[in-house]
Each structure stands twice: as C-alpha cells, then as structure tokens.
Design brief:
The structure holds 2 protein chains of 2 kinds. Chain A is about 40% helix and about 30% strand. Chain A is α/β, with parallel strands linked by helices. A 6-stranded mixed beta sheet of chain A has the order 6-7-8-3-9-10, sandwiched between helices. A 4-stranded antiparallel beta sheet of chain A has the order 2-1-4-5. Chain A starts with a strand and ends with a helix. By secondary structure, chain B is an all-alpha fold. Chain B has one domain (about 1-245). Chain B has helices at about 1-15, 20-40, 50-55, 55-70, 70-80, 80-85, 90-110, 115-125, 130-155, 160-175, 180-185, 190-200, 205-210, 215-240. Chain B starts with a helix and ends with a helix. The chains are: A alpha/beta, B mainly alpha. At the A-B interface, helix 2 and helix 3 of A face helix 1 and helix 6 of B.
C-alpha cells in the first residue's frame, strides 16, 4: 500500500524548547493512526507541521508526494485538517463557511452545492445551517469543523481531538464516520480517550516529550500492559488467602495479588508470564481447591495502564539524565 | 488571484455581519461631513471646492482607519482561525492581499458615500470636478497606506484594542513627520538631507499637494510603495507569529 504521509526525522523548536524531537513515521492509505500522549507532548505541534501551518526546524513531512517545505500549497490541497478546538469564523453561518472553504478548495458550481448538501445530510447540520457559528453548541461547532475538513474528499485527514467535548452519542457518530472513511484515506487522529484507539485506530503512536515512545497496533499496545491477560477472580474474603497460596504454586504465573473488594469480598489478580492465557489453569486450580468464586474474568490489559507506564517511565528516565 | 478574491469577499462580508461596518460608516460620514463646516469654514470661504473637506482626511483617517484594519489579523489569531486559513491551499501573500483588499474596498465605499458633499458644491457653484476626482483618488490611496499599516500592526497582536492603539500611534508618527515643529527638532543639528528624508515620509506633505488638487505622480508612487512595504512586512509578521 502507498504511503500517503511520511514524516521524516522531524524536529520543531520554539526558542530553546524542543517540542518535537526526531519524529519519523508513515501512514498508508487505508490506515487510521491514533496519536496519543500527555498534554504538551508534541502531538498538536507535529500535526501543525504536517498540515503546513508551522514550518519544521529540521526534517520534513511528505504528504501524497508533496514536501511540505518546498510545495506547501500542493500538499495542503490533498489534506483536510481539523485544528485543535475546531476554530471557526464565528460571524459566518455553517452554510456560508462551507461555501467559502469549498471555493478555496476549488469545489465550485453544481458540484459545490451537491457536496455541501451531502455533508449537511451526513454530518447532521440541517438544523443550524443558517445560524451564526458563534451561537452554536460545542458539538455542532465540532461537526462544522469536521465537515470543512472532509469537504473536498481529501486523501489525507488530520484530526486534532475530533471527539473532544462531544457527548457519548456524538462521539459514537464521529467514530463511525472516521471508521467509514478509514478504508480509503490515510487518517491521523489525536486523542486523550484511550478507548478510541480500540474503537477506530489500526495503529497507535504514543509520543512523550516530543519523542515517539511506542508505535504499534492496539493489540501490541495491550500486550505491553503489566497486567496483560491477567485473570481477575472475585471471591469471599475467607477463601482469598488460600486461593493466593494455591495459585502461587502455578508455574505459569508471574505474580498473584490480593486486593480488598466490596462487601467482604476480595479480588485476586493472577498475572501470567509473558501474557500467556491462563484462565483455564487458574479456574482448574480453584476448582480443585473447592474455592467458590463469584466472578472470574480475563483482561487484555488496560490501555490507560500502558499509557501511564510508558509515559511516566520515560519521564523518570529523562529526570535521571 | 482567484484565492485573493475569495478571501476578500469573505472578509468584506465579515465587516457587514457585525455592527462595526455601520457604526464606522456613520461615524465616518458624520465627521467627514461636519468637520469642514465647523472647522474648515466650508461655506464662509465662498469658494465652490472641496479643499476644506479633503484637508481633514489625514486626521480623520488617522483615527478611523485603524478601526477598519485592527480586526484583520488580530481576530484570526485570537480565535485561532488563522490555523484554518493558513492550512487551506492559499499562500500567505494571497491571504494578506485578500484581507487588505477587502478593507480597502470597504474604505472606498465609505469615501464614495461622501458624494453629497460633491453634490453640494456642484449645486452651490461651479467647481473643478477634475480636481475633486483627483483629490478623491489621492485620499483613497492615502487611506490604503493607513490601512496597510493597520493590517501589518494587527498581525502583531491578538488584541484588537492594542492593534488599534498601536496603529494610531504609528500613523501619527508617519503623519506629523512633515509638520514644521517636528522638523524643527531636527533643524539646527541634522544635515538638510536628514530633514528632507524625515519630511519625505510624511503623509501630510504628500497629501498636501493632493488636497490642493494636484495629483502628483510622486505622491501616487509614495503611497503605493508604502502600501507594498507594509503588506510585505505584514506577510513576514504573519509567518513569524504563527508559532506563538
């Protein structure tokens, strides 16, 4: 598959601050890349460089074959961009604004009318079409921003926190939209919501202090969790001590923990070595010991945990340096 | 070129989507109409021309043009729409020119709406309409120079108020540099060439000839090159300030 976005050894300095430090990655057609990282990690800055808003200090980004430094206008033509916070001209109506963007994007005449009608339908802007944008709710503003980004049906989409500030239904709609477009475009989305990575992304990059600290599929990211494929068992307090003892004898387990639960119950956590699937074995051991359990489940590992581990480890090592 | 016009059209519409346009037009027309009568002895002079009307234009523009130019870039930076605009497939130049053009057209409209003054003198007497036309053109050019300055300064800040105040201050400097008391500060110690240089930057010196009815090529070139200079700086400032 073709690489639509190639970021090459990108560095971006603001005065003495190095906001993006030697970042390289590619995004292929048909791929949705999730961009994760703590606030101030350099996500938005990287996106601003890719979209041609900020010039890179070193390195470059090549979008659909156009180098953003040497042919910015050609590169911008192939891209749709939703900036952080979805800034819009408050004095315009969504209709007027979309017409303006269409004209600049070279979508004119009958085609412009058809495309805008189609977007109004697809994104649900019918009700607010003739209201001033500054009077719209956050959800509608975000939708107008999205409509503007996909208006010219670009090959590359860069969306900075597209679901930020939306209610759960709106979030769902936007994710559906992104997923639907994901097959034919190269899409980068930045997000703080880790469930979104599972929901829409084919790949996730975690960036911290301007550097890429992790790059892989959501499944690979889950595998990095220290509790990857851990088995969680809920049982009465009285049985918990015995259960921990028995489970510690199982050779496939790296660690067995007991946590206090609600209503006189305990949660026993059995963490496997190298993420092996051990639910069967754990269940068998408990059955043999005649320990009654009220719940047993296996979890792939929370992305939150991975995210925290990756980004805080890095911070500690940076502090040591 | 197409992009310049698209941007200009959006900007022009933006003026009229807020009360600013109407407030400005009323303020401009009232002051432009009233000042010649009260301060310029428009009627008492007993001459059918618009000389007192045009003579006050530099002072009028000094205060009112920054009000037209202040929002051009400051507003884009405050609301963050500059990121939207500059990631559309347009060049910085097209954006700068488009915005300037919209503001200039708007100012031209304000100027054109002073036509009752022209009708008045034509009703009362037999003025030299060629001179009046030349003066209008000169006034329009000078307004353009004030505007380019205001637009340039507007790109420096996110606050329209600061943009306004700075533009009035900078305009003041450009204007008074030809007045006698300012030149007096240089006389006595600076060589004549410096004094001439300072004087040559003055809007008043150049507009003086225009208001008198002589549309000199020198004045045209002066205002046009000032417009280009300020717009060039404007583009650079926009580029530099994007990071902030």
């Amino acid at each position: 598959m073709e690489n639509l976005i190639e970021v090459q050894s990108l560095r971006k300095r603001f005065g003495s601050v190095l906001a993006v430090d030697n970042v390289s990655f590619t995004v292929k057609r048909g791929e949705v890349l999730g961009f994760l990282g703590p606030n101030g990690a350099g996500k938005s800055t990287t996106m601003k460089v890719i979209t041609g808003y900020l010039p890179p200090s070193e390195g470059t980004a090549i979008v659909c074959g156009h180098d953003i430094r040497t042919s910015p206008v050609a590169a911008k033509r192939t891209m749709g961009y939703l900036p952080e916070g979805s800034p819009l001209y408050g004095d315009m109506t969504p209709e007027g604004f979309l017409r303006f963007v269409a004209s600049v994007r070279g979508v004119n005449g009958q085609k412009r009318k058809e495309r805008i009608d189609q977007l109004i339908e697809q994104i649900g802007l019918g009700e607010v079409l003739h209201r001033r944008i500054e009077t719209l709710s956050k959800g509608y503003r975000r939708r107008v921003g999205l409509a503007q980004a996909i208006l010219h049906d670009p090959d590359v989409l860069v969306l900075d926190e597209p679901t930020d500030g939306l209610d759960p239904n709106q979030k769902h709609d936007v994710r559906e939209l992104i997923r639907a477009m994901g097959g034919t475009k190269a899409i980068i989305i930045s997000t703080h919501i880790l469930e979104e990575v599972d929901a829409v992304c084919d790949r996730a990059i975690i960036i911290d202090h301007g550097r890429i600290v992790s790059d892989g599929t959501p499944a690979e990211l889950h595998a990095k969790a220290s509790e990857h494929n851990a088995v969680f068992i809920i049982m009465a307090d009285g049985d918990a001590v015995r259960a921990v003892e028995r489970l510690k004898a199982v050779s496939d387990l790296a660690k067995v923990d007991r946590r206090k639960g609600a209503n006189g119950s305990s949660e026993v956590v059995a963490v496997p070595k190298q993420g092996a699937f051990v639910a069967d074995k754990v269940a068998a051991v408990l059955r043999e010991s005649n320990i009654h359990v009220s719940e047993i489940r296996s979890e792939p590992g929370k992305l939150d945990t991975v995210f925290r581990e990756i980004t805080t480890n890095d911070r500690q090592s940076a502090a040591r340096q | 070129m197409r992009n310049i016009l698209i941007i200009a059209r959006r900007e022009l519409a933006a003026y009229f989507s807020t009360p600013l346009a109407y407030v400005f037009l009323v303020a401009f027309l009232v002051s432009a109409g009233a000042i010649p009568f009260f301060m310029g002895r428009f009627l008492e002079r007993g001459q059918a021309d618009l000389q007192p009307f045009f003579a006050f234009h530099p002072w009028l523009f000094l205060v009112l043009i920054p009000a037209v130019g202040m929002r051009l870039w400051a507003e884009e930076r405050r609301t963050g729409t500059i990121e939207l605009l500059m990631t559309l497939p347009v060049t910085t130049w097209e954006a700068v020119l488009g915005k300037f053009l919209a503001a200039w057209i708007f100012t031209g409209l304000a100027l054109a709406l002073t036509f009752p003054m022209w009708l008045t003198v034509n009703y009362l007497g037999d003025p030299d309409n060629g001179v009046i036309l030349a003066s209008y053109l000169g006034s329009f050019l000078m307004a353009g120079a004030f505007l380019a300055l205001a637009s340039c300064i507007s790109a420096v800040t996110k606050s329209q108020v600061i943009a306004f105040v700075l533009a009035v201050g900078a305009g003041m400097i450009l204007m008074v540099s030809g007045l006698d008391f300012v030149l007096g500060l240089f006389r006595g110690w600076a060589p004549q060439i410096v004094i001439d240089l300072v004087a040559s930057f003055s809007f008043i010196t150049h507009f003086g000839t225009i208001a008198a009815g002589v549309l000199e090529l020198r004045a045209i070139v002066f205002f046009l090159s000032l417009i280009l200079l300020f717009l060039a700086i404007n583009g650079q400032v926009v580029e530099l300030k994007k990071a902030g």
